[in-house]
Structure formats: C-alpha cells, structure tokens
Specification:
By secondary structure, the protein is mainly alpha-helical. It has one domain. Helix content is 84%, strand content 0%.
C-alpha cells in the first residue's frame, strides 16, 4: 500500500491542476453546471482507464481528449484575445489618430471664436472653460495615440513561448493522470510458493512417518501364523 502512495499523490495533484483550468473554462460556457461537466469528464476518463479492456480503452482515449480540450482552451483564450485586440488596435490607429486631430482642430477653432466673442459680450466664460477642458482631454488622447504608435509590438517568441510551455505542461499532466491510473489499478500477480529446504525436510519426515505407520498397520492386519513365519 505504501508503495502506491506517491503514485496516488501525483494522480491527485495532477487532477487538481487540470480541474483548476477545466472548471474555469466550462463555467464560462455553463455557469450553473460547468464545474460538474469538468469533474464528470475527468472522473469518467479515470474510471475508463482503470477497466483495462479494448472497448473501454478506446472510449477512455476519447474522454481524455475531451478532458484535455478545456484546460488548453482556458490557457490559450486570453492570449488569443489579447493578440486579436492588439491587431485591431494597430489597424484602427491611423483612423483614431486622424479623428482626434480633427477634433482638436475643431475645438481650437471654437475656442478662438468664443474668446473673440467674449471681448464684445459677456457670458462666454463658462463655454470657454468647457471648451478648454475638452481641448486638453483631446490633446491627451492624441499624445497617448502617438505613444502607442511609437511602442514596438512584442516579439512573437515572448508572446507564444510561455503559452506553449503551459500547454505542454497540461499535456504532461494528462499523461501522468493516465499512467498513474493504470499503475494504481494494475492487477497484482499471484506468486506461487516455492518449497524451501525446510519444507522438503518436513515432507520427507512426514513421508517416512506415514510409510512406517502403513507398514505397522499391514503387519497388524496379518494373521498370527504369517507373523510367526515372517
């Protein structure tokens, strides 16, 4: 029993790590019973691998592949979304920059007109203040867009290498689950007892005693005349 304890601990740890990703992914698509989907699929795969028959092995492979999809998707989803957002932002950067510059030009023209009108008529102070605030915000947006334009895109290796390492680790965890399950459920072979030298001596003594008892019984069963002749 103690020999199988490390294998059992590895199996439990691997299942917990896998379920931490699988439950998250399933819960995004089914908030009510997503956790149950994840646990049932993993538990079913473990049970199928323990059966050790051709049919259950085929079904176990399918269940294992299904159990592996959720953690991989949970890991890849955020990275893919970030890459998609970055690509979309880069594509729309010229349009957003042009729109911000046009807005700044419009606000500057309006502010100039308001300031000119305020020289001849009162009551323009509030509108001038509001326009100045909008102009400051627009200029800040333009500076941010220009900074975004100057920021280089991250290297491809820096983006995808951590994801590939995590996905490889998840695949390794699934392999550990399968191998540990097969190891824990392996039937124990029955060992035939090899007779030792002491056992041979005991058998010899018992055989000699049995032979002596048989001889005495035969002699006792002979008639008296035969015993005298003997």
């Amino acid at each position: 029993m103690m020999r199988k304890l490390p294998t059992a601990l590895i199996l439990i740890a691997a299942i917990v790590l896998m379920q931490s990703h699988a439950i998250t992914w399933w819960s995004q698509h089914d908030p009510v019973t997503g956790w149950l989907w994840a646990i049932t699929i993993e538990a079913g795969a473990v049970w199928l691998w323990s059966r050790r028959s051709a049919i259950t092995t085929v079904v176990a492979i399918i269940a294992t592949a299904l159990a592996l999809v959720a953690p991989l998707a949970d890991l890849a989803g955020p990275v893919l979304d970030q890459q998609r957002s970055s690509a979309q932002a880069a594509d729309t950067l010229p349009q957003r920059t042009a729109a911000t510059e046009a807005r700044i030009a419009t606000l500057e023209a309006s502010l100039t007109q308001y300031q000119a009108n305020s020289q001849y008529r009162s009551g323009w102070h509030g509108l001038i203040t509001s326009t100045e605030q909008q102009l400051s915000a627009a200029r800040a947006d333009l500076a941010e867009l220009q900074s975004e334009q100057r920021t280089p895109a991250p290297e491809t290796l820096a983006v995808w290498l951590p994801l590939l390492m995590q996905m490889a680790a998840v695949c390794l965890l699934q392999i550990l689950i399968v191998t540990c399950t097969r190891s824990l459920t392996r039937p124990v072979p029955t060992r035939e007892k090899v007779p030792s030298e002491k056992d041979d001596q005991k058998l010899s003594l018992w055989g000699a005693a049995a032979q002596l008892a048989t001889t005495k019984a035969k002699n006792a069963a002979k008639p008296a005349g035969q015993r005298r002749a003997a």
